[in-house]
Amino acid sequence: MSVGPVSGNGIAITLPPGKTVFWTANVQASWAQYVQVRDFANNPVFQANGASTGGHSPTQIGQGTFVASGTGAYTVYLGYNNGQSWSQVMWEEMTLNIGSQIYSSSFNFISEDGADQDFNDTCLTLTWFNSIG
């Protein structure tokens, strides 16, 4: 069951240190959306912002990879207006495993920036695999 809605002003998650994390951020919104992930030392790992082409068309505003480090503690921020306002967010972690062997895990975050409560303004996905290559 998903968590939320909660404020996008700092959602704590844990990623396994040493694993490569793939991320993608997509929007369907006329207002400029904002995504940032910070590490355990409060350093930005990545940031993406932007609005939809034509106001509501699905648009990717960023993607990439990073290696989880330190304690594995990360904080996720989702908002709009360049991070000056915070969205309402629903999120969940989904793990794919056979028995106790975890093969992959993903965090999915969806946000709502206004009053229509459709929770489709931003979608951020963070995915890691047990092995790479």
TrEMBL record:
InterPro entries assigned: Ca-mediated_lectin, Ca_lectin_sf
For this protein, the record's Pfam families field holds: PA-IIL (PF07472)
All residue ranges annotated as the Calcium-mediated lectin domain in the record: 15-128
What is the name listed in the Swiss-Prot or TrEMBL entry for this protein?
Answer: Calcium-mediated lectin domain-containing protein
